[in-house]
Specification:
This protein has 545 residues and is of the alpha/beta class. The protein has helices at 58-62, 127-130, 172-179, 255-273, 295-310, 326-354, 392-399, 406-418, 421-427, 492-519, and strands spanning 7-13, 46-50, 65-67, 87-91, 95-99, 104-108, 114-118, 149-156, 162-165, 197-203, 206-212, 239-245, 285-290, 314-317, 365-367, 370-372, 375-379, 386-390, 435-439, 454-458. The chain has a six-stranded mixed β-sheet, with helices on both faces. A five-stranded mixed β-sheet has the order 3-1-8-5-6.
């Protein structure tokens, strides 16, 4: 039965935002009593959280698809939709999340680390929230934004202080069992260790962890054997211990050649895969010559120790079976780990002192309460230019728009005009009918799937802002969509002047009628009553009929 999984491919989907509701309140004697459509609920996000009690990615191996709850749609009667619950995924400490292309997204190495991996969609506003003094009964609502979706790779890298590496059957598991309370599987055949083993070691009041990596063979960095599957676990270790088998009977093998082979494989793996700090070969290392309880092995260890000392490598001769030499080895290993941790602490403190706090304030436009940060880039060359608009907020505005509803499209145009998009496009040289692309990608586009990269519009600089319906009483329509001339809402002064003009015209008409009445006729001045009825037959009226 599989009980240890250190790599899993998962498909994650955050919850979608619920759509807003377009509804009109109806009461007795008030068939149209105003908008009362509720807002849609926000979708649930997916959050990663480390748990020190979890040691494997086994749960994600058998259940690789996870979805957060979606928000529900708003309803009439000012009823907002329910918010979707967040999905919290607990992972082992040391889990690294990568995109499907292998790019690292987050390293969950802290014991209480928490990271929002995928963001839930924003719920759309109902027409009650969209109503204003100039838009009293909106005939539209905003759509909910879909939640983010991604295919990701979870990789577990054990957080051990020391890594034991070497050929199969070199005695690595026996060393871990001898110096700690761990009880890994031990047998007299190669590749007994199929999964990494962790042991906790104490030395002079200092505690550190030791990891036993499955045996390595030549070509392990290229996928041969089992060790290549677990070499990632030594990327976080601070000290490398080479366990050398001094009792091997395989032809062509000796302590020096075994050491050189393992170093070569680590160097090649470091070059191809290491993305976790300093190179593996630059870290402190020790050589452990094992199985000296045998007379031949003891003699070979003495010869090999002299060669290693000439190379400047610290060497210990030990026996995992009889525990000979282990106390001195553990004491030196604890001192070395403590020294490395102290140096790392000093370097981290110095880097924090030298770090200069820099605050970046993004350029934004603010008009009529609308605020948005955006960037416009001209592309395509002189023959077929187009303009790309990048903005997280504008992206949501576009995704929330129902393009089948003319009034909703007009509302989007108003919002873009109020934040200055039209003005910036004009400054960059945009002319009528130029293509404008509003990108729908977000800040996590490197691993989040997108159904459509952008929405394209034809630039109409004469298109009027002001989303109230000026020439139509039909909800859901915007007469400006079919108009060619710019239409603007009249000011109070213009309305007052128009009213006085109508009053003056009515007064002049009444005065003219009054003069005609005084002159004794109510017809046109050129009316000829004498010849008006020529050719019309006369009939006598029979009063007795």
């Amino acid at each position: 039965m599989v009980d240890f999984i250190d790599r899993a491919v998962v498909h994650l989907k955050a919850g979608n935002g619920g759509n807003g509701c377009a509804s009109i309140r109806r009461e007795k004697f008030k068939p149209l009593a105003g908008p009362n459509g509720g807002n849609g609920g926000n979708g649930g996000s997916i959050i990663l959280r480390t748990n020190s009690q979890i040691q494997s990615l086994l749960d994600f191996h058998f259940n690789s698809t996870r979805r957060a709850d979606s928000g529900t749609q708003g309803l009439g009667g000012d009823k907002d939709g329910k918010r979707g619950d967040d999905l919290v995924l607990e992972v082992p400490v040391g889990t690294v999340v990568k995109s499907s292309e292998g790019e690292t997204i987050v390293d969950m190495s802290g014991e209480t680390a928490e990271f929002m991996l995928l963001k839930g969609g924003v719920g759309g506003l109902g027409n009650a929230a969209l109503a204003s003094s100039t838009r009293k009964a909106p005939g539209f609502a905003l759509n909910g934004v879909k939640g983010e979706e991604a295919d990701l790779i979870f990789e577990l890298k054990l957080l051990a202080d020391v890594a034991l590496v070497g050929f199969p059957s070199a005695g690595k598991s026996s060393i871990v069992a001898a110096i700690s309370a761990a009880r890994p599987k031990i047998a007299d055949y190669p590749f007994t260790t199929l999964t990494p083993n962790l042991g906790v070691v104490s030395s002079h009041g200092f505690t550190f962890t030791v990891a036993d990596v499955p045996g390595l063979i030549p070509g392990a960095s290229e996928g041969k054997g089992l060790g290549h599957e677990f070499l990632r676990h030594i990327q976080r270790t601070k000290v490398i211990v080479h366990v050398i088998d001094c009792l091997t009977y395989e032809p062509g093998r000796d302590p020096i050649s075994d050491f050189d082979t393992i170093v070569e494989e680590l160097a090649r793996y470091d070059e191809l895969h290491n993305d976790s700090g300093s190179p593996i070969l630059e870290r402190p290392k020790l050589v452990l010559l094992n199985k000296i309880d045998d007379r031949a092995a003891s003699d070979l260890a003495e010869l090999a120790a002299a060669e290693f000392r000439s190379r400047g490598v610290t060497t210990f001769s030990v026996s995992a079976a009889t525990h000979a030499g282990l106390d001195v080895f553990v004491s030196e290993l604890g001192r070395l780990v403590q020294e490395v941790k102290a140096n790392e602490y000093v370097q981290t403190a110095q880097a924090a002192d030298e770090l200069e706090e820099i605050t970046i304030k993004p350029l934004h436009r603010k008009r009529d309460g609308q605020t948005a940060t955006f960037k416009i880039t001209k592309k395509g060359g002189a023959s077929s230019p187009y303009f790309e608009v990048e903005s997280e907020k504008l992206r949501n505005w576009v995704l929330q728009t129902d393009f089948a509803n003319d009034e909703a499209v007009g509302y989007l145009a108003d919002r873009l005009a109020k934040v200055g998009v039209e003005e910036e496009l004009t400054k960059l040289g945009a002319v009528e009918h130029d293509e404008v692309r509003i990108l729908t990608t977000n800040s996590r586009a490197k691993y989040v799937k997108t159904e459509q990269e952008y929405y394209a519009f034809s630039f109409e600089p004469a298109f009027s802002a002001g989303s109230e319906i000026l020439y139509s009483n039909i909800r859901g329509e915007d007469t400006r969509i079919d108009m060619n001339e710019r239409v603007s809402r009249m000011t109070r002064k213009e309305k007052r002047d128009q009213f006085h003009q109508r009053q003056d015209a009515r007064a002049a008409t009444r005065e003219e009628f009054e003069q005609d009445r005084k002159k004794g006729y109510w017809a046109e001045p050129d009316f000829d009553a004498e010849h008006a009825y020529q050719g019309v037959e006369e009939y006598e009226i029979d009063e007795d009929a």
